[in-house]
Amino acid sequence: MSNALVSLLADEASKDEYLRSGLSEQLAFEELQEHRAWQIIESRLNDKIGLLIEQHARSLMAGAPVDQRKTDFLRGYIAGVKDLLALPGNVEKNFDRALDRAWERAQVASAAISSEEVS
User: What is the pTM for the complete model shown?
Assistant: First the structure.
């Protein structure tokens, strides 16, 4: 990668507020995922989801009447927990997309400069 392209990429990245804040979030969530406490929380929440599903299934299999409100609550609770647990990975994906956009803008700017030099 040429120095000019690296410079253009740095310029594009510095202009992009989302990319700058995304880098900060990305680093924070990487630290969080590596922290022992996050691993414990993740494990316990996954265990809790499994237990809730198992309890609800046992209740239904035992012939208990279907409580739609309870089923809906469990569905929402599980979706919320899964969203929470996916947050660090989602931040990484969003940051990667922002970085890709900055890279594309830098390449376009580099091509424009190259075509100006040829003219």
Answer: 0.64
Give 102's contacts (C-beta < 8 A, 6+ positions apart): 9, 12, 13, 16, 19
Q: What is the pLDDT of residue 27?
A: 84
Residue with tokens 């997309």: 97
Q: Helices in 17-67 by DSSP H: which ranges?
A: 17-34, 36-61
Report in angstroms the alpha-carbon separations of 58 from 16, 53, 55, 65, 90.
52, 9, 5, 12, 33
The whole-angstrom separation of Cα 52 and Cα 94 is 31
Residues 6+ apart with CB under 8 A from 91: 22, 25, 26, 29
Phi, psi torsion values for 35, nearest 5 degrees: -70, 140
* The token pair that represents 85 in the structure block: 């647990």
pLDDT of residue 8: 66
